[in-house]
Design brief:
By secondary structure, this protein is an alpha+beta fold. The protein has a single domain, classed as Outer membrane efflux proteins (OEP), CATH 1.20.1600.10. 60% of the residues lie in helices and 20% in strands. It has 9 helices and 10 strands. A hairpin with a 6-residue loop joins strand 3 and strand 4. Helix 1 crosses helix 3, helix 3 runs antiparallel to helix 4 and helix 5 crosses helix 9. The longest helix has 67 residues. It is elongated. It starts with 13 loop residues before the first strand and ends in a 5-residue tail after the last helix.
Amino acid sequence: MGLVGYTQNLDQKSYSLDECISMALENNLDLKSADLRANSAKVNHQQSKANLLPSINGNFNLGVNDGRSIDPFTNDFINQELTFSNMGLSIDMTIFNGFRLLNSAKQNSLNRKASELEKEAAQQDLILNVTLAYLQVLNSKAVLDLTKQRLETTKEQLKIQKDFYDNESGNPADYADILGQIASDETSVLNSESNLNNARLALARLLNLPDSIEVDAESILLDFEKYKLSADEVYNEALQNLATFKANELRIEAAKKGVSVAKSQFTPEISVFGGINTNYSSAAQLFNSTGTSIVTTGDYVTVDGDDLPIMTEQTNFEAEAIGYKDQLDNNLNTVVGVAVNVPLFNGFRAKNNVALEKIRVEESILELERTHLDIKNAIAQVHFDMEAVYNRYLSLQKQVEAYQESYRINEIRFNNGVSNFLNYVTSKNNLDNAKVNLANTKYEYLLRVKVLDYYRGLTN
């Protein structure tokens, strides 16, 4: 009778728990998102500090205007093609605005620290999830080994019953029952292989790998000792070590700074400014004196009946274009001043912004309280389940010992024809199921221990 199922590649590398954690920390997409959020908070903090510095800006333009326009050199209307250029440098600095910029920088500093702690919390969560997934793979492997052992034991019994069947001795129905039991055991193996494959894929997803991986069962020490700490002791350690608590506390402090930022909208803003500017115009000309000449004025005087023109001496000029650099030097102008912006009425925007920021503070406090309550309840539940699983493990150990003895006796009696197949297979199934339950219980206990250690801040 053949068995078709999942086969493990013997050449596939087995990974230790530390290797899986390292790959997860490097590849996990959720952790990369947390890292990007932390980097964004860092940039926001840097920008808020830079906002305390003065703002310096330069400008330059060059263009051609054709038609009626204003000469930037003389401010006269002209109607000609004009090449113009302007340049300037300005500086502006806020002196006082109700400490808005300073409080914004402090708020972003707190948000930055909170984001870094949230990244640390994401790392802690990831390490825990990888560890639990890793243990689930080991659990699935242990159960698969037990189901394979059950199948091999049934096959050995089939050989014995086949000899009886071929020799026409014993109960022929026992041979048929064994064949049915083998089919049942093969189904259990297939189910166990499927569970193992799913556990491997779940671990691979955490590592952001495309295929399932093999784990090294010998790389993790599976100590099975009664947990020594109470739920309250675990919770007290969690308060000191879990990054999520510290992050939420920083979010509260950041929200309080947000209230101070909003209140600054009620205060005047004082700033100083200054600038230097110059310009150029192609229409600008310089008129140089080239001497004098005698010219008629157009008026006449009559002397003895003769009209004599009136002559005058005038200065002659020659137009000369003013150079680009000379115009920039000649047209320099500077400005300095103080600006005061006094908020008188803004549609209650400032008042409502303060109210919203205060609500955010309350929301942050509630979030911290909710985190405290959720984690405390989670620790209490996990601790209770862990103790229940531990007691069940001790009970199952005794059950396995009892069923081993029962199976040993019934196997001898069945092989000697003293007992029937029903008694034999019942003892066998009881023992096999007890072993599987014992293996599952062991890993259930270890999983809960790892969860409690996570809450204590012991992620390595």
